[in-house]
Amino acid sequence: MTQHVFPVPATLKSTAHVDLQAYQELYRRSLDDPEGFWREQAQILDWVKPFTTVKNTHYSPDDVTIEWFSDGTLNASFNCLDRHARDRGDDAAILWEGDTPGDTRTVTWKDLQQEVSRLANALKTLGVRKGDFVSVYLPVVPEAIAAMLACARIGAVHSVVFSGFSSESLAGRIEDCRSRVLITADEGLRAGKHVPLKKNVDAALQNLPFVEHVLVVRRTGRDVPMTAGRDRWYDEALAEVSPECAPTEVGAEDPLFVLYTSGSTGKPKGMLHTTGGYLVHAAASFRAMFDYHPGDIHFCTADVGWVTAHTYLIYGPLANGATIVLFEGVPTWPDASRWWQIIEAYRVNIFYTAPTAIRSLMRDGEGPVSKHDLSSLRVLGSVGEPINPEAWLWYHEVVGGGRCPIVDTYWQTETGAVLLCPLPGAMDLKPGSATKPFFGVRPALINSDGTVVEGEGTGNLCFADSWPGQARTILGDRDRFLKTYFSTFPGYYFTGDGARRDADGYYWITGRLDDVINVSGHRLGTVEVESALASHPSVAEAAVVGMPHEIKGHGIFAFVTLKEGIAESDDLRRELVQVVRTRIGPIATPDRIEWAPQLPKNRSGKILRRILTCIAAGDYENHGDTSTVADPTVVAEIVKRVQLHKTWPGPVLVIKRTSCQNNLCERSPERIDSSGDHVASSVQFQYPASGLLQANGPQPPAMLSCARKRSPIQRGYQEQAMSTIKTRDGTEIFYKDWGSGQPIVFSHGWPLSGDAWDAQMMFFGERGYRVIAHDRRGHGQSTQTWTGNDMDTYADDLAALIEELNLRDIIIIGHSTGGGEVTRYIGRHGTQRVAKIVLVGAIPPLMLMTEANPNGLPIGVFDDLRKSTYENQSQFFYDLSIPFYSYNRDGAKVSEGIRMNFWLQGMQAGIKPAYDCIKQFSETDLTEDLKKFDVPTLILHGDDDQIVPIVASAMISSKIVPNATLKVYPGSPHGLAQVQADRFNNDVLTFIQG
């Protein structure tokens, strides 16, 4: 591949702070005279007590010392606020754009200073003192920045936790730093969905009695439980205190914040950063690497919970007096033009984002970008992972109009600020390269034997000596800090990354060293293979990991996401293999390419390759710390695809049945009798092979179509006594009503006589709940109706039952088709009587494959299902138990008892109502009904559900329903409530009680 080199734009050469000659001179000085260099750089801040000692650092084998400006004192909040508010109090400090378009706020320097001072005073009244830890669990709102600066103002140490983390992840981080005070919000908003922050906080604090106070920001205004004596509304607390708070003098080596790593390298670590060195490095690097000039508008898209936001959204820009754009939402909601709208509206000059976001937006093409005026942009930035050349070029040409340099930055949570990056006015750019080291930084490439690579070459990326922004330790675990970063190569800080240095001295990050694949003795960096794959015009994104290989030791497993509108095919796989062979060589030939609709990423957009490594090795459940996965359903979908070795829709599998092995049948299986009890027939089921039945799994036993009269066993079940109501059209609906307490209504789609949900009803009844379930019309003992078997009527029947029993504060649980019934009930009757909703293996929003719902099932599947119900109902339900419980999987333990019970339940539905039911639940679009859910909703689904595809149901539903929680059961079938009853019962109980 020809190496493209992009020279410094002529418009920057004359105005940039640093040109090439200045960079070379300053960089040399920063190495030869680090104390003199950093003494000058530190003058970017105001010091209370000027320092006399610049640095005291060494990486000795026995110990590590990292101290910068240690005898000086200052205050970070003062440097980020007061000195700008004095002269520019009415200028904008923060331009906030909410998740919903049109929801905006402008926060001036004076506003921010007063908000910070009030919050600092409020924290003081809660007993927070210098050195105390305060946890912050907020969405991307101005109050999050105020919380950080208020802590800094009084010398407290903030620990910001990403608002997308679960209650368990939040609890772990609070417990680690022992915060007594937590600042959160009632809810967050993300892509139109409500994020239950306060609910998560309440769950997290159940076993953390040392947390004494919780301040709650009113973000959405919804009612949330408030614990007396512990919880206070943020605005009320601030209204009671003064808007003036003198900044506390702190030492340069006093801690400023602790921030936990994203988990992409294992268990999260609390990296402790101190005040003086960090703030000097953040402020100086922001000014240099973005060529910041007064008046520039800076837009960093990172969430406040990540180090990118700490350094280059908040501390670095604000210390320079920059106006920042703070965006709560996501780039693709309500459409893929959201970022470009914001850039145009606020006339953004500096834009800093992640490669994964760029690759995602590339899938939508140039259209969304071209509709907006981005001429204000002067500098673009990239952070989080290496940016492949194709994404770099698209970013440069389409977003930057070919005129904006791209500052490709390399750094880590541990490093605090940038280590490798170009300076816009100084360096020619090579797409995909992090270019040269920042001032004062001395990189080294070291071989595994400890020898230092000179000149061009590859090796382990390390850094000699220290820099001001470096983390001082891992909170509470100094031994781990020393072992992780300083023991592998004594005398050096070890990043854990590999890198290549080219003949021009440019650095190229080759990936985490656990992302380097040793193929037949050849070390291949995953980034190189990924870039080759991404060069194909059909590829949006690729991630490459190693996989066990009997001959080569390790093979290459590639997960590839295609651009919008590109069809998956074996021909395309072969093209991609050829691209890699051509770009890199035959040694890099991928052993396997799997299509992935999306790749698993953490909240900062970094691809979690360690999870893909587990999947490639055949470990589909144990992926290590998954608390930071932005969308867990992505992992479930990839696992499903890898296990199936196919993509949807697959080839049609035809299964024929000719003999009977029904152990309830009184006739010989060899005897085909046409006397009326048995009807001979040969039935075909046509399902996509990757859908209901699998060609490579064990097949159901051959079975005669048995359409005989109901057995005495069935009649015994039907004769059980139950209560009844009559609907407006006279239909008699049978129901069970057990126990007392808060009502739980089950809508399960099966006749009550089959006892399909009795285990769940017993579980919750024994725990003090009132449990109710009913026979749908046409099922079990309810009236066998010829008409009225439609979705609206099913929902109205459910409403009639609820109204007849005068139920309120209901927990309503819908399984399979019952989930559709519940959803339409909400759509027609609202949630006035409903407290919470649970959808289990449910069909919404739409089962049928359409142009708008490509992941649904083809109409032919439902045609065959309907045909089977009236031609051969007995055979149909016996066969259906196989995919219902995933008995067609290798190694599955088939229970004939469960199969017979399933068959018995199915046979209690009338043929005509069953036929209508299938049509209604397969072809009804419930999207608009889902949008009316306004109570907490739990969506449970097995990722091996062969009846209701998880992609077309649970994943989409969880995105449509506000305030929804999605839980995916790995390896679980449609009948998860039976095969994983304990887990299911406890998950639902936890949700109900939460």
Automatic annotation (TrEMBL):
Cofactor(s) named in the record: Mg(2+)
Catalytic activity reported: acetate + ATP + CoA = acetyl-CoA + AMP + diphosphate
GO biological process, one term: acetyl-CoA biosynthetic process from acetate
Domain AB hydrolase-1: 743-974
Binding site for ATP: 384-386, 497, 512, 523
GO MF terms, alphabetically ordered: acetate-CoA ligase activity; AMP binding; ATP binding; metal ion binding
Residues engaged in binding CoA: 190-193, 308, 520, 581
Keyword annotations of the record: Acetylation, ATP-binding, Ligase, Magnesium, Metal-binding, Nucleotide-binding
Binding site for Mg(2+): 536, 539
Pfam families: Abhydrolase_1, ACAS_N, AMP-binding, AMP-binding_C
Domain AMP-dependent synthetase/ligase: 81-464
Segments forming domain Acetyl-coenzyme A synthetase N-terminal: 23-80
Domain AMP-binding enzyme C-terminal intervals: 528-606
N6-acetyllysine modifications at: 606
EC number: 6.2.1.1
Keyword Ligase: yes
GO cellular component: cytosol
Taxonomic superkingdom: Bacteria
Post-translational modification: Acetylated. Deacetylation by the SIR2-homolog deacetylase activates the enzyme.
Primary role: Catalyzes the conversion of acetate into acetyl-CoA (AcCoA), an essential intermediate at the junction of anabolic and catabolic pathways. AcsA undergoes a two-step reaction. In the first half reaction, AcsA combines acetate with ATP to form acetyl-adenylate (AcAMP) intermediate. In the second half reaction, it can then transfer the acetyl group from AcAMP to the sulfhydryl group of CoA, forming the product AcCoA.
UniProt family annotation: Belongs to the AB hydrolase superfamily. Bacterial non-heme haloperoxidase / perhydrolase family. Belongs to the ATP-dependent AMP-binding enzyme family.
Protein's UniProt name: Acetyl-coenzyme A synthetase
